[in-house]
Design brief:
196 residues; alpha+beta; OB fold (Dihydrolipoamide Acetyltransferase, E2P); DNA polymerase, domain 1; 5-stranded mixed barrel; 9 helices
Length: 196
Amino acid sequence: MIGSVRGRIASKTPPQLMVDVGGLGYELEAPMSTFFNLPGVGEEVSLLTHLVVREDAHILYAFATEAERRLFRSLIKVSGVGPKIALALLSGISVEAFSRCVLNEDITALTKVPGIGRKTAERLIVEMRDRLKDPEAPPGVAPVAVGASPETEAYGALIALGYRPAEATRLLKAVGPGTHSTEELIRRALQGASRE
């Protein structure tokens, strides 16, 4: 299996790009989240990849981060979700936002992504809930996406403490805007809860 490619970008036509690796051109498909961070044509790039083998084609998908590739690999294991839908999801929503949608059971947000209907969104929430959990985490710890923001980590901690998703969201919103560490967000959210 081809795990990554490093070379010069030969062409970019979303969602396809070609990377020249020592004279060999690799055709890749990438989500828009990866495309937004690509350098210009002719510049060096390093991408993580996933190879999908079909009867009629071998398709190489490219990702800027390990979190994107991991989510893609989990998505294509969901029944009724193929690489095209997985690519559309990664193009329409960030890894962190997808995790939040699953945790909050936010079907409406998922159906805003082109190609995702209500039934697919419901299936994604049911099947992805356990897959988003960190395999290293002890039982009872809420799932948190790798590379998650302090807000997402704080949200996961509040869920682990027994707060319902809506309560955790409300407590974090009450903290207000600003750049806070995960610990600070949790502390302020718990202080707000104790004042209620």
